[in-house]
User: Fold these one by one.
Assistant:
Number 1:
Amino acid sequence: MRFATLNLQGRTAAALNFETHYRLTPFDDVASLLRGVEGDLSRAADLVLEDTVPLEEVSLAPTVNTPSKIICLGLNYADHIEEMGHGGEAYPTLFAKFPAALTGPYDDIEIPSVTNAVDWEVELGVVIGKRARNVSAKQSHNHVAGFVVANDVSMRDFQRRTSQFLQGKIFERSTPIGPDMVTPDEVDYALDLRIVCSVDGKVMQSSRTSNMITSVADTISYISQIITLEPGDLLLMGTPSGVGAGQTPPVFLGNDQIVHSYIEGVGELINRFVSAK
């Protein structure tokens, strides 16, 4: 099953993908849908309305607009650790984002006038379905609603101003996610999917989700020891090597460049970067 959040006239709505069209639900986004059904997507079929939107007319919003939290992993691929000059850590590196950082899968992304170091980071996004607190890695799959493609667009100059790099990760409308949330059964829990990012058609990142240091299961278990994960929460699982900051010399995004972010079986984001006016 595939779920998305659609832009409608003056509002958004969670919808179920029927390949040729989407059918709407009474919920504003996929996060609120998950809260409404308490993570049991089998109940969603009973809530689908008769209202439909043809695929060619769809405008997609961020899949989850209202997560209670967005938690991200840094340095979760060994080759990315090497290219960024970091040492390995004994525990996952975590940081947070806020819902205002999210944007749609095909939206333009503005390059803020205060930065000249905008970088790409394709990532697997995990949407939490059922509340998770102190769950084991073995239990954690029961708490996954599905997966999205994400790009943790980073303002590297702001990120490197201090040892805490949150400020380079939370610029408004800078993190595209989508296009649909794909349920785990369609992609074997994303255990070994190809993950790729290209800039203006040139492949910059190419890896597999099986190369992640901390798996989805271990990540959910670890975070649930710290804080309760709620339906609709979003986890970003880190990026492989090939980011702009890892090039020699570093390369960053400029006006009118297009970034494609792809994960096998999940989907693709297409985002044009535009200079602030």
Note: The helical segments are 30-36, 78-83, 137-140, 156-159, 216-224.
Number 2:
Amino acid sequence: MQKRSRTLHSNNSRTLFYKLFFTAAMLFIATAATSTPAGADIYKYVDEDGVLHLTNVPSIPNAKYVLILKEKRIHFNSDIDVNKYDHLITKAANKYKIDQALIKAVIKAESNFNHQAVSPVGAQGLMQLMPATAYALQVEDVFHPENNIEGGVRYLRYLLNTYRGDLQLALAAYNAGETAVAKYNNSVPPFRETQNYIKRVLSYYDDFRKR
């Protein structure tokens, strides 16, 4: 879904900082208020020029990141219908030659099967597509389950092809962006969120395969 991190800049103004913090907090609360949250930890840091940065992917070495908003983690045993979109998942899986269990694992980790989910950084729908990615994939209605799954699975297939079937790298790029993977010599970036994301998807993948 391209790089999901979004960085906000300001001067070293306390007033503007609180405006940015309030905006991020409202986004987080709005997401947490849904029955199936989909979000990410939000960090801040101030650079040498006094510029404030807010991001969900701490990617700058030696930067002193401070966690200001923590994602409400989703759990596999939540009371949801994980089979609700099976007909759409099967269709996309057959079209793009991807295991249905993997698609369901990504959806579980991304949105917990909430087709209206919106993350604090703007990712949307079942497979949490960023607006720019949805546009590039020509997804007309990102909240339409079939459109979102079609776009998300097509993007996942592209990443799997790009990284020659390396699932961990494909998932890392899905979460943190291809640029982040390339920055670390085509390896999983040392971001806690991304590493935890890969572990969650692989755990869900294993569970869905056993079902």
Note: Helices lie at 14-32, 86-96, 100-111, 131-136, 145-162, 167-176, 178-183, 192-210.
Number 3:
Amino acid sequence: MVSTEANVVEPVFSEEDCIDFFFSKKWPNGFRCPQCGHSRYYTIRTRRLPLYQCHNCQHQTTLTVGTVMERSRTPLYKWRIAFHLFSQPEGVSAVHLSEIISVTYKTAWEMLKKLRLALSDKDTQRPLTGRVRAGVSIYGKRTLQPFYRHPKERPVMVSASFQADGQPSYVKLKMIADEHMPGKRTLLYSGEVAFTKQHVQPGTFDVRFLKRS
């Protein structure tokens, strides 16, 4: 185990454990050749990571192809720790991650960048639908100035799809471009249009932007 901060202990995994772990995540129903869909394969262990060769078409693939880990030289166990820390509510900084898994700051920064991009791409593929509610909030340094934003205050759109029982089924948090925000919390109609076009399923009619009183 590795202690990252006082009273906080993060798990450490062996590389072999992680090979099995990522195999089960990539092929939860068993191996499927990405080229022909065949289920039988040979395992070739002459490299750092095993190659999986299709019994039918001889196509070779690895655990990392098509993932954020593709072409990375960082061991799988370090990626798994990065995934774990990234998924925590408090997240993890590149400086902290580099210390925990013993990589350079640049490597840690690139790992987190890839994870954020992958999460953003996945989020883009899931637009809000049904009963949608959204409103402006402020992220970053808080000030008591009610009308003008501090340079470190960033406007964000907090939004969600709601189920029939009133519980949110999916939540999005998106930055708002300055061009749509003439004041600290005043959202122009152009901002509503831009958000709806980018993040709401076409044909969704129950969309409301909540105003602060």
Note: The beta strands are 2-5, 8-10, 41-44, 51-54, 60-61, 131-140, 153-162, 168-175, 206-210.
